[in-house]
Specification:
883 residues; Immunoglobulin-like; single chain; TIM Barrel; 5 domains; alpha+beta; binds beta-D-mannopyranose
Length: 883
C-alpha cells in the first residue's frame, strides 16, 4: 500500500487556474489561505468574505506511475480514507466512485482500469452545501438548532455549517490520505476481543478475515513489554475467517486503568498473512488494552432513581471531564502534536473523561491512541447533533441509511479496540428536542416502525446503530446524550445522563443553584468566558476602533444566542464590573471560573460512596476552542495565519465561547479552578442565609442565621487521615480572625461531610438592614507532612455587595522565585480571583500553574510560571480599583 501524496494540484471548476497543492491530505480553504487567495476567516469579519468557497465546485487531481509488478498483482485498489464530502472520482477519464459521506472510507477495485505508466486521478467536489439543499428539497425540511437545515441530510461534520461557537466554513477536499494498494491477498479485518471477567481474568481472542488468495495467517500477541504472549498459525475457513484465543489469569493480566487509578499498558496483536508460497503478503497490528468496563444503572440508597456511572476493573469512577469539539474548522491542520497538547492539558487539569460530541467528527486515530496512552476515558457520540424539528427530527429515508450504514460500520470497526472508549451514544440532544417539540415519542413503544412517525431518526438510534455496535464491538451503547431510559424523559435528573443548561440557556438560573440542578451524570453544562486578551487581539486583526465589548467584530466572534444579555446578566447579578475590553475579559473569565468550579464542587459532593453515587460525572461544555499551547510560540501576527502552529483543546477558531481553553491552547482561569475541584483530594464549603420568623404572623420579627457546611472529597482508593484547618477573616477587621483545626478521615473514593455550624464571626441578625460582615472562610486540608492537599475560600455572595478595601491596604506582595519561574503571593487581607499576567505582553507567553486564585493571610501561594524569566508581572482581582 503506498500513499499517493505527490503531484496534486487543484482548481476551481470552470477556471483553468491550477495551483499546486501544498500538502496532502488537504482542503480548499487551507490551500487558498496559503496562496493568499482568501483573507483569514478567523480575523475580523472575513468569515463572510469566504462563503463563496463552499458554494463553488473544486477539482483536485494528480498523476502517478504504476509499474508492471504492481499491475501484475491480482488486485489493485484505490483507497480513499476520507473525501469531504460529495465527490466524483475519475481514473484515466472513467468514473470509479461517487462518494457521499465525509466519514466513510472508500476502497475501489481498479484492476483493468489502471495502466502501466502514468495514470491520472481527478476528484470533483461539487458544492456539498448545494447538494444538501437539493436533498432537502426532495426529502423535506427539518428544523433544528445551529446551522442550515440542509445539514441534516448530509453526512458531513455538522459544525461546518456554523454552530453557536463556530463559524460557517464549508470545507471541501481529500481530507484524509489516498492510497494505491496492489496485492495478491489482504487482511480485510483483524478483530481483537479482550474480555475481562469480574474476577479480572482475561480472555483474548483474535479473529482475522482475509480476501481470497490467502493461505494462512500467523497471529502474534505481545504484552506491553513487547514479549510474545501467544502465537498461532491458522488456515482460513470458507468465509475467509480464522480465529485464535487464549486466557490470562488476573495475576498475569496487566490491566488498563483510567488516569489516576493505575497504568495504561497497551498490548498488540499482529496478524501476518501468507500466500501459498509462504510469502508474507500483508500484516496488520492492532493495539488493545485489558479492562473491564460497565455502565452501572443500579438502584440507589436513600434516593429515587438509578446510578449512571462507569466502573472500570470493578472500581467506580467519578468522571470529571470535558466535551470535545473538533479542534479546528480546518481539520487537516490539527497535527498529532496539537492533539497531544490538548489532551495532556486535560490530564494536567485532573480530568479523566472526554466526550467526542456528535456535531463534529469521529476523531483521528491519534486522538484515541493518545487517550489510551494518557488514561482518558472517551465517551463517543455518533455524528448526529441538535437535529431539532418542529415536526420531525433527523431524517431516516432509505438513501440516507444507505449512506449511513457503511459510515457506522467503518468507524465502529476502527474505534472498537481502543481501551479508552467506554461508551457509544447515538446522538447529541435529539430526544431532548423531540420532547420539547411534542413529537411522536412514546418511550413505552419499542416495536413500531418509527420511520412512520414524525421522529423517524428513532429508527437510527434504536435499531440501526445498536445493531451495528453489538455486532461489531463490545462497547456499551446508549441511545443519546442525554438519555434517561426506564421510560423517563431525557431531562429526568434521576436516570441516565442530563445536559444541564438551565444555567446560561433555559431558565438562566444563578450558578449558586447547581446543587438543585444536579443529575446522575451531567454530560453537559457550561458558562461562557472571554478567551485570553491575546486571542481577542488576534481576531481584531489590528483594528483598534472596534476593540470594545460588543462591537461588530467582537460580536462576530461570539455565536451564542443572546450572549450580550446573558453575559451581562451573570455579571450584573454578581460583580461590580468595568466595561473596557481588558476588564471585560477579566470579569467574564472570573465569572466562568466561579460558575464551573461551583458545579464540580457541588456535584462531586454527591459522590458519596457505594450505593450513594448520586452524581457520578460532570463534563463541562466545552474543553476546546482552537488555541495555541502556551508553551508554543505566540501565534503569528495578523493578517495571515499559518494553521500549523496552532493547537487547540477546544474552540475551532478564535471566539468567545464556553470553552475553558481557547483556540490557541491558552487556558482560561476556569481551567485552573476546575483542576482544583478535580484534584485527588478537594475541600468544599457552602454558606446559606436562613431566615426564621418569630411566629407564623410576623414579618418584622425575624432571625437571619448563616449556616455553613464543610466537606472533603477523596478520589483515591485509600482512606485519608488529615487535618481540616478552618479560618475565618473579616475584610474590615485586620485584628480579628477565628478558626480551628480538626483531625479528619476522608472515606476512600467518596465525599465525606466534615462540619456544619454557624459562620464564625457572623452573629445572628435580627434586621434585614443589618449588613452582614464580609467574612471569608478559608478551609484547607493538610496532610500529615504539613502539605496543603486542598484549599478553598468561601466568600460572601453576591460579590458585588462586598466593600473591598483600598488596594494599598491589602498588603498584597508578589515575590518572584530565584529562578524567575515562579511567583509567591502573600497578603494581609483576603483577596478574591487573582489572575496573573506579564506586565509587558510583547514578550514570550508564560505557562502559569494556577489562576483565579483566592488568597488569605497566612497561606502564601507559590504559582509556577514557566517562561516568566523573572519579568515583571501584573495582577487583576476583585476590588483591584478598576471597577
Ligand atoms: C449543547 C451542545 C451544543 C451547543 C452547546 C452550547 O447542548 O450539544 O450543541 O454548542 O450546547 O449551546
Amino acid at each position: 500500500m503506498r500513499t499517493l501524496s505527490d503531484n496534486w494540484s487543484f482548481a476551481q471548476a470552470g477556471t483553468e487556474e491550477w495551483h499546486a497543492v501544498s500538502e496532502m491530505p488537504t482542503t480548499v480553504h487551507v490551500e487558498l489561505l496559503k496562496l493568499k487567495k482568501i483573507p483569514d476567516p478567523f480575523i475580523g469579519l472575513a468569515e463572510w468574505d469566504v462563503q463563496w468557497v463552499g458554494e463553488a465546485e473544486w477539482i483536485f487531481k494528480t498523476s502517478f506511475e504504476v509499474g508492471e509488478s504492481e499491475l501484475a498483482q491480482p488486485n489493485v485498489d484505490l483507497v480513499f480514507n476520507g473525501l469531504d464530502t460529495y465527490a466524483t472520482v475519475k481514473l484515466n477519464g472513467e468514473t470509479i466512485l461517487d462518494a457521499n459521506n465525509q466519514f466513510t472510507p472508500y476502497r475501489v477495485a481498479v484492476k483493468g482500469k489502471i495502466q502501466a505508466g502514468t495514470n491520472e486521478l481527478v476528484i470533483n467536489f461539487p458544492s456539498t452545501f448545494f447538494k444538501g439543499k437539493e436533498l432537502e428539497q426532495q426529502n423535506g425540511k427539518f428544523l433544528l438548532w445551529n446551522g442550515d437545515s440542509s445539514r441534516l441530510h448530509v453526512r458531513k461534520a455538522q459544525y461546518n455549517y456554523g454552530w453557536d461557537w463556530g463559524p460557517v466554513l464549508m470545507t471541501a477536499g481529500p481530507w484524509k490520505p489516498v492510497y494505491l494498494h496492489a496485492y495478491s491477498a489482504r487482511l480485510s479485518d483483524v478483530h481483537v476481543q479482550a474480555h475481562v471477567d469480574e474476577n479480572l481474568n482475561s480472555k483474548i481472542s483474535v479473529v482475522a478475515t482475509a480476501t481470497p488468495g490467502a493461505a494462512k495467517v500467523q497471529i502474534t500477541v505481545k504484552d506491553p513489554q513487547g514479549d510474545v504472549l501467544h502465537q498461532a498459525e491458522a488456515k482460513f475457513d470458507k468465509d475467509g475467517k480464522t480465529s485464535t484465543s487464549f486466557a490470562l489469569d488476573s495475576k498475569k493480566s496487566q490491566l488498563w486503568y483510567p488516569v489516576g487509578y493505575g497504568k495504561q499498558p497497551i498490548y498488540t496483536a499482529t496478524a501476518q498473512l501468507f500466500n501459498a508460497n509462504e510469502q508474507s503478503v500483508d500484516s496488520q497490528t492492532e493495539k488493545f488494552g485489558l479492562r473491564r468496563v460497565r455502565v452501572v444503572e443500579d438502584k440507589l440508597i436513600d434516593q429515587d432513581g438509578r446510578t449512571f456511572l462507569f466502573e472500570v476493573n470493578n472500581i467506580r469512577i467519578f468522571c470529571g471531564g470535558s466535551n470535545w469539539i473538533p479542534a479546528d474548522s480546518f481539520l487537516t491542520t490539527v497535527t498529532p502534536e496539537r492533539y497531544r497538547a490538548w489532551l495532556e492539558l486535560m490530564v494536567e487539569g485532573n480530568q479523566n473523561m472526554i466526550r467526542v460530541w456528535g456535531g463534529g467528527i469521529y476523531e483521528a486515530d491519534v486522538f484515541y491512541d493518545l487517550c489510551d496512552e494518557l488514561g482518558l476515558l472517551v465517551w463517543q457520540d455518533f455524528m448526529f447533533g441538535c437535529g431539532q424539528a418542529r415536526d420531525r427530527i433527523y431524517p431516516a429515508y432509505d438513501e440516507l441509511l444507505e449512506r449511513l450504514v457503511p459510515e457506522v460500520e467503518a468507524n465502529v470497526t476502527r474505534l472498537r479496540h481502543h481501551p479508552s472508549i467506554v461508551i457509544f451514544a447515538g446522538n447529541n440532544e435529539d430526544y431532548l428536542l423531540a420532547e420539547q417539540n411534542n413529537l411522536e415519542l412514546d418511550y413505552a413503544d419499542e416495536t413500531s416502525d418509527f420511520r412512520k412517525t414524525n421522529f423517524p431518526a428513532r429508527h437510527i438510534y434504536e435499531r440501526v446503530l445498536p445493531e451495528i455496535v453489538e455486532r461489531l464491538s463490545d462497547i456499551h451503547y446508549h441511545r443519546a446524550s442525554p438519555y434517561s431510559g426506564y421510560g423517563k424523559v431525557s431531562t429526568d435528573r434521576e436516570h441516565g445522563d442530563i445536559h444541564q443548561w438551565n444555567v446560561w440557556h433555559g431558565s438562566q438560573e444563578p450558578w449558586h443553584n447547581w446543587d438543585k440542578l444536579s443529575g446522575r451524570f451531567v454530560s453537559e453544562f457550561g458558562m461562557e468566558g472571554y478567551p485570553d486578551i491575546r486571542t481577542v487581539d488576534y481576531w481584531m486583526g489590528g483594528n483598534a476602533t472596534e476593540r470594545y465589548p460588543q462591537s461588530r467584530i467582537m460580536n462576530n466572534h461570539n455565536k451564542a444566542n443572546g450572549f450580550e444579555r446573558r453575559l451581562e446578566l451573570y455579571l450584573m447579578e454578581n460583580f461590580k464590573h468595568a466595561f473596557d475590553i481588558e476588564s471585560y475579559v477579566y470579569y467574564t473569565q472570573i465569572m466562568q471560573a466561579e460558575t464551573l468550579a461551583s458545579a464540580y464542587r457541588l456535584w462531586r459532593r454527591e459522590w458519596k460512596g457505594r450505593g450513594r453515587e448520586y452524581t457520578a460525572g460532570a463534563l463541562v461544555w466545552q474543553v476546546c476552542v482552537p488555541l495555541h499551547a502556551l508553551w508554543l510560540p505566540a501565534p503569528p501576527p495578523p493578517p495571515m495565519r499559518t494553521h500549523n502552529a496552532h493547537s487547540q483543546i477546544n474552540d475551532c477558531w478564535p471566539v468567545t465561547s464556553w470553552a475553558i481553553v481557547d483556540y490557541f491552547l491558552r487556558p482560561k482561569p476556569a481551567y485552573f479552578t476546575i483542576a482544583r475541584e478535580l484534584a485527588p483530594i478537594s475541600v468544599g464549603a457552602t454558606r446559606k442565609e436562613v431566615t426564621t420568623f418569630a411566629d407564623g404572623r410576623t414579618a418584622a420579627h425575624l432571625e437571619i442565621a448563616t449556616p455553613v457546611e464543610i466537606w472533603g472529597s477523596n478520589f483515591t482508593l485509600a482512606e485519608v487521615k488529615a487535618k481540616l484547618v478552618v479560618k475565618a477573616f473579616d475584610l474590615e477587621r485586620d485584628d480579628w480572625s477565628e478558626g480551628w483545626e480538626q483531625e479528619i478521615v476522608l472515606a476512600p473514593n467518596a465525599s465525606t461531610e466534615l462540619w456544619k455550624g454557624q459562620l464564625p464571626g457572623q452573629e445572628i441578625r435580627k434586621l434585614k438592614s443589618e449588613r452582614p460582615k464580609d467574612i471569608i472562610l478559608s478551609v484547607r486540608i493538610i496532610g500529615p507532612d504539613g502539605r496543603v492537599l486542598a484549599r478553598y475560600a468561601n466568600w460572601p455572595e453576591p460579590f458585588k455587595y462586598i466593600v473591598f478595601p483600598p488596594v494599598e491596604a491589602l498588603g498584597l506582595k508578589t515575590k518572584i522565585g530565584s529562578d524567575g519561574e515562579s511567583v509567591t503571593l502573600s497578603t494581609k487581607k483576603p483577596i478574591k480571583g487573582i489572575v496573573l499576567d506579564v506586565a509587558d505582553r510583547s514578550g514570550a507567553e508564560v505557562k502559569w500553574g494556577d489562576q483565579a486564585i483566592d488568597l488569605v493571610p497566612g497561606d502564601d501561594q507559590t504559582i509556577r510560571a514557566v517562561g516568566l524569566a523573572g519579568r515583571e508581572i501584573k495582577l487583576r482581582f476583585l476590588g483591584d480599583g478598576t471597577a
